[in-house]
Amino acid sequence: MFKDIIQKLYETQNITDDEIKLLIDLPESEAAPLREAALKRRREYYGNDVFIRGLIEFSNYCKNNCYYCGIRAGNTQVERYHLTKDQILQCCDTGYTLGFRTFVLQGGEDLSYSDDDICDIVSSIKKAYPDCAVTLSIGEKSKETYQAYFDAGATRYLLRHETATPDHYAHLHPESMSLENRKQCLWNLKSIGFQVGAGFMVGSPGQTLDCLVADLRFLQELSPDMIGIGPFIPHAQTPFAHEPQGSLLRTLNLLSILRLMFPYVLLPSTTALGTIDPIGRELGLEAGANVVMPNLSPVDVRKFYALYDNKICMGDEAAQCIRCLGMRVKCVGFRIVEDIGNVRRSV
Ligand code: 5AD
Ligand code: FES
């Protein structure tokens, strides 16, 4: 029965809600055919290539207070930092030498950078590295602001929708935030011409199978270029400190389902996945992921960018991480490529 559903998903990129639920909960003993189908699809579009993105966590200041996140405004115990333009360019310089051709600038919603500051940082990176893509991941902004970022040279934007179920969204976020606004931001980014990434945590508090089905349906509507998912991991200084972490198996099943529903998609095997299991990122690649995002942030600030507890690679130089990841990727039969890593919408 499972095999028929997997075959249908492989052939039509779609299955019913009930079938989705069965695959999300597929037991490990039955998961091999799902992994095989996802890998076959992945190879058709991307061969054995794994794209790398250099993640620069440039600020942990945040005006928001999401209940799951370690750098929420309400966490007074975290030491705050933000990098200067020169420090960010220094990270890019290190990254470029190591073979990175995409830089992801990620940060909290830090009000101390003006739109002009961000545009200046983006255009300076583009000027120094015209053969690289700049991705922004700095939260909800007005359409005008997004347009200014785009005009400055940013072409990709990551903004996880977190959950497509309004009640669940309200369970994860304070009243000042809304799913409606989050979705509007994603549509605005798309209409401007950004390559857009959405996504969600697996096993966030209050998440049901129906929530996950709604997440996949929303993604089908949005048709993003990138989809970021990883397990929820509790952070001690948040209201969800004592909630259980998301399941490895469920995350892997979802990665495979996503690969089959969105054959073209750029799908990272996330740091969170590597945090809940020593070979989590390798398993993610074997489940259908095709991107890894090593950390390029200066080592001395890494410990302050803890969205969740026990995050890996906290003390490792970028060069160390890329070497380590290169080996890990090779061990499961893939290879890291020095490439801007654009989406391949068709085979
Ligand atoms: N566990 C796992 N992922 C988290 N994120 C934030 N907090 C956590 C956590 N405690 C994810 C969110 C956010 C992305 C940058 O990190 O989905 O969009
Ligand atoms: Fe950072 Fe292995 S990826 S040390």
How does the helix and strand content classify structurally?
A: alpha/beta
For the record, the CATH architecture stands as: Alpha-Beta Barrel
- Number of E-state strands: 9
* Number of helical segments with 4 or more residues: 14
In terms of quaternary structure, what is this? single chain
How far is the first residue's CA from the last residue's CA? 29 Å
SSE run: HHHEEHEHEHEHHEHEHHHEHHE
- Give the DSSP E fraction (strand runs of 2 or more residues): 5-15%
Report mean pLDDT, rounded to a whole number. 98
CATH topology assignment: TIM Barrel
Which strand order spans the largest sheet, edge to edge or round the barrel? 2-3-4-5-6-7
Can you put this structure into words, describing what you see?
This protein has 347 residues and is α/β, with parallel strands linked by helices. The chain has one domain: Alpha-Beta Barrel (TIM Barrel). It is built from 14 helices and nine strands. The protein has helices spanning 2-12, 17-24, 32-46, 85-97, 115-128, 143-152, 166-172, 179-192, 209-222, 248-261, 271-276, 280-287, 299-302, 318-331; strands spanning 49-52, 54-59, 102-107, 133-137, 156-158, 195-202, 226-231, 291-292, 335-337. The strands form two sheets. The chain has a six-stranded parallel beta sheet with strand order 2-3-4-5-6-7. Strands 8-1-9 form a three-stranded parallel beta sheet, with helices on one face. β2, α4 and β3 (102-107) form a beta-alpha-beta unit. α4 runs parallel beside α5 and α5 (115-128) packs parallel to α6. The radius of gyration is 19 Å and the shape is globular. The two termini are 29 Å apart. The protein binds 5'-deoxyadenosine and FE2/S2 (inorganic) cluster.
